[in-house]
Amino acid sequence: MPCMDKMQGQSRRAVILTIDDEQAIRESFHLYLEDYGYTVIEAENGRVGIALFESHKPDLVLVDLRMPEVDGLRVLEHVVSTSPDTPIIVVSGTGVIDDVIEALHLGAWDYMLKPLQDLSVLLHAVRKNLDRSRLILENRMYQEHLEVEVRKRTEELHQAYQAVQQTNQQLQQSEKKYRSIFESLTDVYFQVDLDGVIAEISPSVYTNIEHQREALLGNHLWDLFVEADVCQGMRARLNEVGVVTDLEALLFDGNGLERSCSITATRERSSEGGGRIYGVFRDITERKQAEAQIEHQAYHDSLTNLPNRRLLLDRLDLALSRSKRHGYAGALLLIDLDRFKTINDSLGHSVGDQLLCEVALRLANVLREEDTVARIGGDEFVVLLSDIGSDTQAAARRAQGVAEKISYELSLPVRIRDHELYITPSIGITLFPIQNEDSGVVLQHGDTAMYQAKAAGRNAICFFRPGMQAEADKRLDMEKDLRLAIARDQLKLFFQAQIDENGEVCGAEGLLRWEHPQYGLIAPDRFIPVAEETGLILPIGEWVLQTACEYITKWSKGELSQSLSHIAVNVSPWQFRQPDFPLQVEKILARTGTDPRRLGLELTEGVVIDNVADTADKMASFKAIGVKISIDDFGTGYSSLSYLKKLPLDILKIDRSFIEEVTVDESNAAIVGTIIAMADHLGLEVIAEGVETQEQLEFLYNSGCKRYQGYFFSKPLPVEQFELFVSDSIRRRLSNCES
Ligand SMILES: Nc1nc2c(ncn2[C@@H]2O[C@@H]3COP(=O)(O)O[C@H]4[C@@H](O)[C@H](n5cnc6c(=O)[nH]c(N)nc65)O[C@@H]4COP(=O)(O)O[C@H]3[C@H]2O)c(=O)[nH]1
User: Fold this and answer.
1) Do the strands 599-604 and 628-634 form a parallel or antiparallel pair, or are they unpaired?
2) Residues with Cβ < 8 Å from 138, sequence gap 6 or more?
3) What PANTHER family does the annotation carry (predicted)?
């Protein structure tokens, strides 16, 4: 950079080029200026002067105007054109003043007239012009520096401007984004001042609690709270700790209804003492309802909506501790519906369900509000009576009264669809507190008493006695033992003869017995219900069929063949309802080589009318192979004539209960007469069951019943005795024939 060279030149000795054709002048200038610290180079004419100017780049040029070859004006033109910042002083004689003027026009910085009387004039001119040159240089440098600075600043400003523009744009975008987030929030964002005045609230407040945002702005957030204490609590907490998290509160919705909301809020204090509260809330009404429903379902029976076992035990715990504390007595009533299973099995589950709902309704109507009625199993209801007296006697009387009322209400007929149903309850009652028993024990006592009521012949009310528990335990033991009965060969099939109108054995019914090693011979009425409850009836039923078929095959070959042409066995509803039951029977027949025409199956009325189509199909497949079907206990169930006509039946067995009274009760006699006539009309055989007396037999005989079974002829007998009984009767017949 020329400027910088020149500036640096100032700190070194300045170089002065003196161009003059007069040697004396050159030398005088040289000597004089060197004394003042300048370096002087000399040129004797303009040509040499230009060359030296080019080679040495002097800081100042002193040039004579009149010189041979190349004069001072040419030197001046060269210097001005190539280095306009180099000061050039023309030194001229007084006679060439016009040249001096021209030189100044061409760019000379100064002039001096020769002869110089005082060389200090020279020194002054040199210093002055060098200073000027330096100032010009400095000024230019300063200008240049200024321009650089301005350019730099301009650039910086430009960049700053662009940055601001960009920030503005980002701000706008972020504001837009914030707006759209704010407007599409599912939760409700709110901002209120410390008094609760709403400064901002998101539009989602409408979808959440049906308030218009605009209508809320400026109003108090606190006015939305349903519970003043919850609102106070939240404000106090915000004051104390500055935050509340997931606070559940009820808020009024736009229609004045209550909605459950979860609120999270923060209080922010400003330095000036003010502040704001901001936060979000969410409508959790549906979640709360779902939770309440789940909670309800966990504690209630889904069919009747009554409390379930869990809730009952909770309430019982509460009643127990209250009664222990205050000395009140309470009672627990366990209610089981007699013959409910028959109704359910025969008329279908939907009728069964409706019946249970009706029972629930009737129970609720009988009781006080503070009593609890619960359903704890299929047809098992429990009533909890708390605080019913301060002494056991009074409590027992109250409980008995309630039980009787329940018994009465439940035994009134129930009409469901086309059916008029009659049910009776077996009720077990236990009082509490007896000792320090817990709810589980109280329930168990009630259960035991209820089983006792059932055992007492159903439709009974029975109080718990301590000794009962042992009996209940025995029943449990029986269940355990029954599982092993087949494997341990404890099941036996007894046979009871069936007699024809000539008094001859014409068949038999196989009846199950259980030879228990501890309890002796157990009758089927005691263990068949247990087998049905536990599902053991299926393997047991199969065993009965298999065993009966084995005997049929055996007897079909010997002397008993004619007398025992038909052996019937009982079939449980559970067995019969298995889809492959006919196949199972066929397999057993094949396995044992039994003639199907010798086998009879006894079904209860319930089985027959439950799912008539399926029953008819199964019966038809039995009929096709010759197996006979009889309806057992006929007259006790819900059979109707129309069903009977549709089904391929063979035999009706009149229930023992009718036969029992047939000679003393006219209505029973009429029923038996009707059944016999009806069977005759339908082309069905009839057998009377439970014939015990000569009178009964005569009545039946005279009414047209041609087959009988009962103690009058023989009890059910073990196989050996039964075979002897039949052989004897054959022998007797033969001897009668002979005589
Ligand atoms: N008081 C009296 N009773 C008489 C007289 N004649 C017969 N009985 C009894 O009446 C019942 C007739 O059998 P059910 O009605 O099929 O009633 C049977 C039947 O429903 C069921 N059962 C018996 N064996 C089986 C079986 O192998 N499978 C199934 N599923 N149930 C069976 O147990 C019930 C009771 O059987 P059991 O105790 O053997 O009782 C038998 C029999 O001993 C009489 O003159 N007077």
Assistant:
1) parallel
2) 7
3) BIOFILM ARCHITECTURE MAINTENANCE PROTEIN MBAA (PTHR44757:SF2), DIGUANYLATE CYCLASE DGCP (PTHR44757)
* Domain assignment of residue 44, given as a range: 2-143
Q: For residues 447 and 333, what is the distance between their CA atoms, to the nearest angstrom?
A: 9
What is the ipTM, given to two decimal places? 0.97
Same domain? For 525 and 600 the reply is yes
Q: Considering the domain boundaries, does residue 716 fall inside one?
A: yes
Same domain for 500 and 383: no
Helix (H, G, I), strand (E, B) or coil at 267: strand
pLDDT of residue 639: 56
Instruction: Indicate whether 662 and 562 sit together in one domain.
Output: yes
Query: 698: buried, middle or exposed (CB in 10 Å: 19+, 13-18, 0-12)?
Result: exposed
CATH code, domain with 587 = 3.20.20.450
**Is 177 among the domain residues?**
no
**CA 511 to centroid of ligand 1, rounded, Å:** 6
pLDDT in tens, 82-93: 999 999 999 987
Sign, CA torsion 67/71/72/75: negative
Q: CA angle, corner 698, sides to 695 and 700, nearest 5?
A: 110
pLDDT of residue 205: 93
Whether residues 673 and 605 share a domain: the answer is yes
The tally of domains found in the chain comes to 4
Q: Are residues 503 and 622 part of one domain? A: yes
List the one residue out of 736, 685, 673, 730 whose CA is nearest residue 709: 685
Q: Atom 1, ligand 1: which residue's CA is nearest?
A: 690
Q: Pick the last residue of a domain from 114, 143, 172.
A: 143
The separation between CA 84 and the C-alpha centre of its own chain, rounded to angstroms, equals 95
Query: Does residue 707 share a domain with residue 577?
Result: yes
Whether the CB of 525 sits within 6 Å of ligand 1: yes
Mutational pocket test of ligand 1: of 342, 345, 498, 511, the residue with most ligand atoms within 8 Å of the beta carbon: 511
Handedness of CA 288, 290, 295, 299 (dihedral sign): positive
656 Cβ below 6 A of ligand 1 = yes
Amino acid at 597: R
Q: Which CATH number covers residue 376? A: 3.30.70.270
Residue 544 Cα: closest atom of ligand 1: 27
Q: With helix as H, strand as E and coil as C, how does 471-514 read?
A: HHHHHHHHHHHHHHHCCCCCEEEEEEEEEECCCCEEEEEEEEEE
Strands in 273-413 per DSSP E: 275-283, 330-337, 372-377, 380-385
Which atom of ligand 1 is least distant from the CA of 653?
Answer: 15
Nearest CA to ligand 1 atom 31: 570
Give residue for tokens 């020329």: 2
Ligand 1, atom 42: closest residue by C-alpha: 716
Domain membership of residue 387 (yes or no) is: yes
- pLDDT under 70: residue ranges of the chain: 1-11, 94, 457-458, 471-472, 609-610, 636-642, 739
Largest Cα–Cα separation, the chain: 206
Question: What is the pTM assigned to this prediction?
Answer: 0.50
Q: CATH number of the domain that 134 lies in?
A: 3.40.50.2300
Which of 652, 538, 650, 645 is closest to 598 using CA atoms? 650
Ligand 1 pocket check for 575: Cβ under 6 Å: no
pLDDT per position as a tens digit, 326-346 = 888 999 999 999 878 878 877
Q: d(Cα 426, Cα 337) in Å, to the nearest integer?
A: 6
Predicted pLDDT at 94: 66
Q: What is the per-residue pLDDT for 501?
A: 94
Cβ of residue 710 lying under 6 Å from some atom of ligand 1: yes
Ligand 1 centre distance from Cα of residue 714 (Å): 13
